[in-house]
Amino acid sequence: MVAPSIGEAENNVTLKATVKTADDQIVGGAPVLFAIERTTGGGETVSPVIVYTDNLGVATSTFTSGALGSDSAGRFNLCHHNRLFS
Asked: Which helix (H) or strand (E) holds 46?
């Protein structure tokens, strides 16, 4: 949970996704799409939106809350060969 951002005070949190194969092997260089579902329109953002995993299979982005509160959940999507996995 992240408090709403008010005025010049921005509240943010680091988002991390780890990509592994079905055999639990890490995957480096995999594109991960960070997206916000059911936004409030209060100015919330995720940046960067598309991140490639590092050599440990981890992709990192930042969520910054908007001015309006919400109970919306974030979602990580894995993009691979023009296919989207949730």
From this structure: strand 45-47
**CB 30, CB 81: distance < 8 Å:** no
Which amino acid is present at 64? Answer: T
* 47, β-bridge pairs: 62
Q: Strand ranges (DSSP E) for the chain?
A: 12-18, 31-36, 45-47, 50-52, 58-64, 74-80, 83-85
Q: Which residues contact 14 (CB under 8 A, 6 or more apart)?
A: 60, 61, 62, 63
**Residue 3 to residue 27: CA distance in whole angstroms:** 33
Interval 27-67: pLDDT, tens:
999 988 888 777 777 778 888 989 999 999 999 999 887 76
Q: What is the pTM of this model?
A: 0.74
